[in-house]
Fold this sequence. Notes:
By secondary structure, the protein is mainly alpha-helical.
Amino acid sequence: MIIHRKSANHAIIGIDCLEDRRLSWSAKGVIVYLQAFPDGLETLVVHLKHASTEERQEIKEVFRQLAAAGYIEFDAEAVS
């Protein structure tokens, strides 16, 4: 997905992930959040934990969901 940044506080993103019925609303929110960062950025569960109200296990489940749908790479075994 290509992001065209208009300024430091705004981005234009494709909506294909928002229309993906395989994803929960939580997963859709996380993928939109992640799209604001450069491609290839390694995001850890702990980073999202500090940026949200979700618990670590909930974030891991969202990452599993996004990985299963092909949006991210995630190794649940590597995350304690």
